[in-house]
UniProtKB/TrEMBL annotation:
InterPro entries tied to this protein: AIG2-like_dom, GGCT-like, GGCT-like_sf
Keywords: Transferase
Keyword Transferase: yes
GO molecular function: transferase activity
Protein name: Gamma-glutamylcyclotransferase (GGCT)/AIG2-like uncharacterized protein YtfP
Superkingdom: Bacteria
Transmembrane portions of the chain: none
Domain Gamma-glutamylcyclotransferase AIG2-like: 4-103
Annotated source species: Flavobacterium cutihirudinis
Length: 106
């Protein structure tokens, strides 16, 4: 099993059903030393506003979200769902666990 930290769209039960055909269960957690940045992504019907996690110079900044345990297969489904504007990296959560997050793809 893998741990996926979601701070945005992937917390939506509707999106989870679309990607995994099930609703995930998770636990609240945080990533420290990151902040959210606005991001516009071109979609089928125009531009859409999202947020992306980026490292912060202020190590006390944090992002609240949910840590989900998912299979490797489900993690690959998320890779396909996320646009090229994001990349997957591992981070240490406030709880001490290591999780994957999607951050800005530069």
């Amino acid at each position: 099993m893998e741990l996926l930290f979601s701070y945005g769209t992937l917390r939506s039960k509707q999106i989870q059903m679309q990607i995994f055909n099930k609703v995930l269960s998770g636990t609240p957690d945080q990533i420290l030393g990151y902040k959210l940045k606005s991001l516009q992504i071109e979609e089928e019907f125009g531009m859409a506003d999202y947020v992306v996690a980026i490292p912060s110079e202020n190590l006390t900044e944090n992002i609240h979200g949910v840590a989900f345990e998912i299979s490797n297969t489900d993690l690959l489904k998320v890779d396909q769902f996320e646009s090229n504007s994001y990349k997957r990296v591992q981070v240490k959560l406030k709880s001490g666990r290591t999780a994957w997050i999607y951050t800005e793809n530069k």
